[in-house]
Amino acid sequence: MTVFSGKELVLMIINTLLFLLFLLHHASSRSLNRITPSQPLRDGDVLLSDTATFALGFFTLSNTSRNRYVGIWYNKVSIQSVVWVANRDNPLNDTSGVLSINTHRNVVVSLSNTRTTGLNPVWSSNGSFSSSSSITNTFAKLLDTGNLVLIEEDGGIQRILWQSFDYPCDTMMPFMKLGIDRKTGLNRFLTSWKSSDDPGFGNVTYRINPTGYPQLYMYRNGNPIWRVGSWTGKRWSGVPDMTPNFIFTVAFVNNATEVTVMYGVNDPSVFTRMVLENSGQVRRTTWQTQEHRWFEIWKGPKEDCDNFRRCGSNSNCNPYNPQTFECVCLPGFEPKNPREWYLRDGSAGCLRKKNVSTCRSGEGFVKLTRVKVPDTSKARVDLSLSMKACREKCLGDCSCASYTTANESSFTGCMTWHADMEDIRTYSSVGQDLYVRVDAVELAKYRKKPFGSLGMKGMISLLVVSILLVLFLVMSFIYCLIKNKKQARKHSKNLFNYSFENSLSMDDFSSGKNLDLPLFDLIDIAAATENFSDANKLGHGGFGSVYKGLLSNGMEIAVKRLSKYSGQGIEEFKNEVVLIAKLQHRNLVRILGCCIHGEEKMLIYEYLPNKSLDFFIFDRESKLQLNWRKRFDIICGIARGILYLHQDSRLRIIHRDLKASNVLLDSELKPKIADFGMARIFGGDQIEINTKRVVGTYGYMSPEYAMEGLFSVKSDVYSFGVLLLEIVTSKKNSGHYEEITSTLVGHIWDLWREDRAVEIVDPSLLVDDDACPNEILKCIQIGLLCVQDYAADRPTMSTVVSMLGNDSSLPSPKQPAFIFKRNKPGDKSNPSTSEGFNSVNGMSTTMVEAR
Ligand SMILES: *[C@@H]1O[C@H](CO)[C@@H](O)[C@H](O)[C@H]1NC(C)=O
Ligand SMILES: *[C@@H]1O[C@H](CO)[C@@H](O)[C@H](O)[C@H]1NC(C)=O
Ligand SMILES: *[C@@H]1O[C@H](CO)[C@@H](O)[C@H](O)[C@H]1NC(C)=O
Ligand SMILES: *[C@@H]1O[C@H](CO)[C@@H](O)[C@H](O)[C@H]1NC(C)=O
Ligand SMILES: *[C@@H]1O[C@H](CO)[C@@H](O)[C@H](O)[C@H]1NC(C)=O
Ligand SMILES: *[C@@H]1O[C@H](CO)[C@@H](O)[C@H](O)[C@H]1NC(C)=O
Ligand SMILES: *[C@@H]1O[C@H](CO)[C@@H](O)[C@H](O)[C@H]1NC(C)=O
């Protein structure tokens, strides 16, 4: 028999009561599908959308804060991903909050006790809707787009009284409109959170400004920091890489009722969102179900030139400008204050040159290509005019300073500027043409054919000028020679003591302000590499040998001693290295400097402790260090690095020699691409000769490159595809794949068509717990899309990155190129693939374009 003491009995009763209370509390937390005046949502309840994609309820944001918010989040995403918050600046202290519909037909958040006492709610949807129908016909529902709507039902007709999409927070969702309803004056825009754990109103907004020709801007504390630009018919003028792809659609409307933009998504199972951060960045990400993470596919602003009015008025920000800074006055303009111009990096802007009187005969236009057109808030727009009529209209109006087309897709519409032109910049590949009005003198400077329009007199004066010019050039050349010799002597003395610490910080490069590149002295490098000893040799690549070195300050470096190199002079070599050193990305090997000594030229890189990717994936033992998760990260990293080279960097660079041995792994096994920009240093012909020598590279070369010498970004895409397939299979594409008497690519293609592609996957990848065969197969499909025979069929790197980053269905690959099947280098005969090469016509044959 057990006897309880009174104390124990009381404790037991209390415990039982507490347990009952606990049960009661949990029984009371419900999933609703609508909120009605009689059925409010209490803290602990959730309101689900029809397919439970989104949920609305009370939540906290961090373990340290007890603040309770009401908001909407992705219900099927494993990371807390809040897309909308009601009481942004008014969190609740405890769990007594209630979301209900009040007698004024508003959705309100209030404390349960104040609801009855009639105190002001913590948050209210703030409409005041009078209606004849009874309040009981009003309800709130969460749609599958993540939109909370308040609906009034009257005789079977539903009317939306209020919706959360009209009051966005920091997240723009598909099918949400941003912009202005011209009838009601409602302006929907994004406002950043204060910080990642405080959803209060932050300092940064992203909104459409309807002044003049409407534009999208990013503001901080009300001041524009980035002009996303006007709608060109295809994209925002300030977002060059916004190409419609298979994931998104964009609808821009500018009419009497509204000026809005809306993104759509073709596949509703793709979760994509655009988030405005308080740091002043807007980021688009997609959810990767298998990876459990948000994957970044685009962000802005990116470059110094994106800063609003970086170069002041009438000036063009050109990141590819070989001068010391990016700003260049528009044709016919000069720095406002020449001294200030240099002191303040050109940010003071430009004025029309003196002694230029407009409205004289002989005026014309200079075309600036690939630019972001000036701020259109003061532009005059006539959408009915053709380009030709636009030009005439501008020429006939003395106040007209420049013109361009308003619609990039139809090349119609006339946009003209009549005052200072603001916030212009140059892009590498896309962008619009801007025609700047100049007088006859200026026009002559820009004429391509100087003889075309000149008379006899002009010809003679031109001749005289030319002779004078030649004389001047010869003189300066001689002068330079003498000076250079002197300087070279001086240099070799000064540079002797050069050490890495006292050079500029490497981060200065990314700001584009400092063009100096550390020059290392041969003595130091020789000491660091123990006189280029064999023991220190890391390998021999296409462009020379690589040595490991240890500087006297303890820093480890990799030294690439370039093989005998002809062509460019020292200055050109330095310029190229400076440009390439500016390419900084976490997936590119960083260049620290160079060393020039007579014929000897060396590039100094950061040293990476791990070997290159080929060492890992093609080795029976080492490959076990890379499970599928690591390999997928490596694939994504390589893709991002190439995308940066192709699109995001200041120079448009085609790598041309992408292969497993050119991908290095850092201590965390993150990939870093090496040997980029070699085409720039060596010049086009040299690299071609070079790749012909390196037989191993053959497996990576696209058919149009190998056979016709045509390269484009799509040849890199091809090489990437081969590399991807190698990573998945741990097998080399090049060389002899004898078992199957076909190339790896060909073999994968055969298996793919028979739905047996999984057989080629490295078996060690499939045994891992983390492995997901679907994702591996998706990668094989992307690989096959990249190695398609016709360059035009292959995706761009930005599409590849998007494809890697989401789960939507992919197009079916077409037959890949098999030209390397038993082909010897230099053997160009292969009738089966020589036809159809027209598809690569019109593709650039230059591997590097200055942007
Ligand atoms: C919550 O606390 C855990 C452990 O204390 C910590 O690891 C985690 O990062 C915290 N989460 C947030 C959002 O602060
Ligand atoms: C939070 O708690 C404090 C004191 O505990 C109280 O004064 C304040 O009104 C509460 N705020 C809200 C929003 O309930
Ligand atoms: C609702 O209106 C009140 C008073 O006009 C204002 O203080 C409050 O910020 C508004 N709330 C919302 C969510 O707009
Ligand atoms: C917003 O800007 C103000 C004024 O510049 C600054 O004091 C404040 O710290 C900023 N707030 C946030 C959340 O960045
Ligand atoms: C631009 O032109 C295209 C094709 O004519 C048309 O569909 C589009 O609506 C135009 N856009 C604007 C902003 O005028
Ligand atoms: C403006 O465009 C919207 C969306 O296409 C349309 O619903 C509306 O009727 C248009 N308004 C006018 C005045 O054309
Ligand atoms: C402007 O023209 C005047 C007279 O025509 C001349 O004296 C002066 O030097 C010119 N200035 C410049 C900057 O060309």
UniProtKB/TrEMBL annotation:
Q: Where is this region: Disordered?
A: 821-851
Annotated Polar residues bias: 829-851
- The residues that the entry says bind ATP are 560
Domain named Bulb-type lectin is located at 32-163
This entry carries the following GO cellular component terms, namely: plasma membrane
User: Topologically, how does it sit relative to the membrane?
Assistant: Single-pass type I membrane protein
Q: Residue span of the signal peptide, if any?
A: 1-29
Apple domain location, by residue? 359-439
Where would I find the EGF-like domain in this sequence? 301-339
Sequence ranges assigned to domain Protein kinase in this UniProt record: 532-818
Q: Which chain regions cross the lipid bilayer?
A: 459-482
Alphabetized UniProt keyword annotations: ATP-binding, Cell membrane, Disulfide bond, EGF-like domain, Glycoprotein, Kinase, Lectin, Membrane, Nucleotide-binding, Receptor, Serine/threonine-protein kinase, Signal, Transferase, Transmembrane, Transmembrane helix
Catalysed reaction(s) here are: L-seryl-[protein] + ATP = O-phospho-L-seryl-[protein] + ADP + H(+); L-threonyl-[protein] + ATP = O-phospho-L-threonyl-[protein] + ADP + H(+)
Q: Which domain of life is it from?
A: Eukaryota
Compartments (UniProt record)? Cell membrane
Which GO terms label this protein's molecular function in UniProt? ATP binding; carbohydrate binding; protein serine/threonine kinase activity
Q: Where is the major localization of this protein?
A: membrane
**Biological process according to GO:** recognition of pollen
Q: Which InterPro entries match?
A: Bulb-type_lectin_dom, Bulb-type_lectin_dom_sf, EGF, Kinase-like_dom_sf, Pan_app, Prot_kinase_dom, Protein_kinase_ATP_BS, S-locus_recpt_kinase_C
Q: Which family does it belong to?
A: Belongs to the protein kinase superfamily. Ser/Thr protein kinase family.
Official protein name in the record: Receptor-like serine/threonine-protein kinase
Q: Which organism is it from?
A: Acacia crassicarpa
